[in-house]
Amino acid sequence: MKTIKTKVAIIGAGPSGLLLGQLLSKQGISNIIVERVTGEYVLGRIRAGILEQGFVDLVREAGVADRMDAEGEVHEGFEIAVDGVSTRIDMKKLTGGDAVVCYGQVDITEDLMAARSSAGLETYYEADGVELKNVKSESPSVSFVHNGEKIELECDYIAGCDGFHGVSRQTIPAELRTEHERVYPFGWLGLLSETPPVSEELIYSKTKRGFALASMRSETRSRYYLQVPLTDKIEDWSDDAFWSELKKRLPVKAAANLVTGPSIEKSIAPLRSFICEPMQYGNMFLVGDAAHIVPPTGAKGLNLAASDVATLYKIMTRVYKEGDKSCIDQYSEIALRRVWHGERFSWWMTNMMHNFGDMSSHELEGETFERFMESELSYFTSSENGKRVIAEQYVGLPYEELAP
Ligand code: FAS
Ligand code: PHB
């Protein structure tokens, strides 16, 4: 058994773990990341594409923003189309100047991995049997097996950045955990292609055939999504079938701009809202998808992970720079306030933008629920105040500071 020490043990080398590790290192707070799979595997997961300003500021503070600033595209608005009729949500005007940046999660993760390795910071990939120990004590630890060797990582704090299927959340005893969950009766079929986007801004499109989203990664790389039944399998969807259905769900002008091509990646993701309360237990903190999941309709998943990272980073900085340990009790409350806002917005956008058909939802059934949601969407996209509500949430609510 080999024993190693650090101040903060980070479980998971996804965006949450890597961003937290980079920020802590800038404050001279030692940290070691323990990741279950290889770095290549992490980079193979095509996920988010829209970064809130708060996320962008954090990446700049971490000193990892060069490529994002050079290649990321600022988006000042996006479109919501209902049965082919488009409304532009002018985020910049409606929020007094705020916008979002279109830059892929894979790119951010790549940049953070490169920064971590060039700084010579320790990451144990392909770590097996990760176990969190004594998290309620002043000397928690993480044990795992790496290259056949058993390792005990002694630390002061553990950041559980290990995603929805990780082990950290289970460290909170079931009787102390409250889990809120809503599983949606459909999924998103995503496709990535080396083709130019159909429009300069994102298009969220609701049609009688179902929801579609036209997004992008660059001027030459597009990301598209289609709402599909949960029973669909990826083998049910050839590229041609995807393109033909997408064309039917986009507004006419966008459909006319559609350039098709071979899929680089194609996958079906289930949609769920999930929140675990509390987000901390003793000296263990849950960060990002380890604590919460949103349906991607509001582009909040990665962005909520970033605000968790920001709060934990402020707390760790105060603990080690000012010796104030009392602030660690603030983490869960502050993180959850913003998480619930992001969860509600994502749930609301999902309910408004998708066809539930005869699938029941809430206390309302089928047609009645559909009609309520049609009316809700029509109000919020036709009134200035309604559009402002959407814009304020989409660019991201402000990050909360620690209490003094
Ligand atoms: P992650 O899940 O990214 O990373 C957790 C890491 O922990 C993984 O590398 C995993 O291998 C590791 N791990 C797990 N168990 C472990 C263990 N026992 N020991 C060690 N390591 C362990 N968000 C958006 O904003 N927009 C989108 O369009 C969008 N699309 C998505 C599509 C899909 C299919 C999925 C699954 C998510 C999507 N998301 C989207 C959300 C996604 O971007 C997450 O919010 C983001 O990956 C969160 O990052 P992390 O919290 O780092 O979790
Ligand atoms: C994406 O580009 O992957 C993306 C953008 C916005 C969303 C969801 C996904 O709401």
Automatic annotation (TrEMBL):
Residue stretches spanning the membrane: none
Top EC class, one word: oxidoreductase
InterPro entries: FAD-bd, FAD/NAD-bd_sf, HB_mOase, RIFMO-like
Annotated Pfam families: FAD_binding_3
Molecular function as annotated in GO: 4-hydroxybenzoate 3-monooxygenase activity; FAD binding
EC number: 1.14.13.2
Alphabetized PANTHER family for the sequence: P-HYDROXYBENZOATE HYDROXYLASE, TRK SYSTEM POTASSIUM UPTAKE PROTEIN
UniProt protein name: 4-hydroxybenzoate 3-monooxygenase
Organism: Amphritea japonica ATCC BAA-1530
Source lineage: Bacteria, Pseudomonadati, Pseudomonadota, Gammaproteobacteria, Oceanospirillales
